[in-house]
Amino acid sequence: MSPTDSTSGTSSADKALTVLEIVLTSTGPLGLAEIAERAGLTKPTAHRLLQIFVHRNYVRRTGVRTYATGPQALWLAGDTLARVNHAEMARPALQRLHDLIPETVHFAVLSGTDVVYVEKFESRRPYRMASSIGMALPLHCTAIGKSLLAFMPAEERRRLLPDGPLAARTHNTITDPDRLEQELARVARRGYAMDDEENEENIRCIGAAVFDSTGLPMGGISVSAPSFQLSAQDARRIAPGVVTTARDISLALAAGMERLPACYRSPNRPGPAHLTGTRTP
Question: Cys-Cys link to 119, which of 87, 140, 164, 205 (CB 3.0-4.6 A)?
Fold first, then answer.
């Protein structure tokens, strides 16, 4: 686009938002000439719009005709994020996943040293999972919990996990901290975790972490079913779709694709459309 403000069909509001987005998404102060060039506007038009944003504190001057994010934009972003209903934001992606597979789909968020279910889509099978919204579960033996741990900073992970052996929930629970660290390294490489009857006998889950606007894991999603219904092979087969759904929720929560793990950004990763139903009874 040539640097002119006479482009047909471009409204004043559109020009103003373009200028604001350029400043707010920059990693540092920008000069007037660069802002005008990126926005496809003349310098007088860009300057006029910038003065409006400076007056409203959305943009601040940092030098002679250089501009950066202002305090009002930061306050508004923080206030908006504080009021985000995570379950509501996640619901469309969870629904798409649930439309493609008949098993139970959960969304949980980190709360203290546990994960807590905040959304659940019931299985379309004759059976029902005993889980419920508000239920708290350990981190070390659940698919969502292990996904969260795998992408946390190491010091945060050490803070959340107890010293010494971990509590055994079933005969399959990983109780040795060193063995859990090895498992978490595999989770971080592939993007998903499996709960192979580790939290509850005869229940298998596949899960992936959800990231917030800072790029840190804040929760996760899982697909759960009785192990006779969801084999380990089945779980691995649907894992790419689970990761894709977790990625879509992360983007809805303003994580930004560049802040997501590389295994979430693979252009060849199958999406939910590649899912096929697990074995029917």
Answer: 87
Q: Residue range 112-129: average pLDDT?
A: 91
Contact 204, 227 (CB under 8 A): yes
- The pLDDT tens digits for 49-59 are 999 999 998 89
φ/ψ of 117, rounded to 5, equals -65, 130
Give the whole-angstrom CA distance, residue 148 versus residue 262.
16
Residue 127 burial (CB < 10 Å; 0-12/13-18/19+)? exposed
Gap between the Cα atoms of 153 and 124, Å rounded? 37
Other Cβ atoms closer than 10 A to 170: 15
> Is residue 211 helix, strand or coil?
strand
> Looking at residues 219-248, what average pLDDT do you find?
95
Q: What separation in angstroms does the CA of 279 have from each of 60, 102, 203, 227, 249?
A: 59, 10, 15, 11, 27
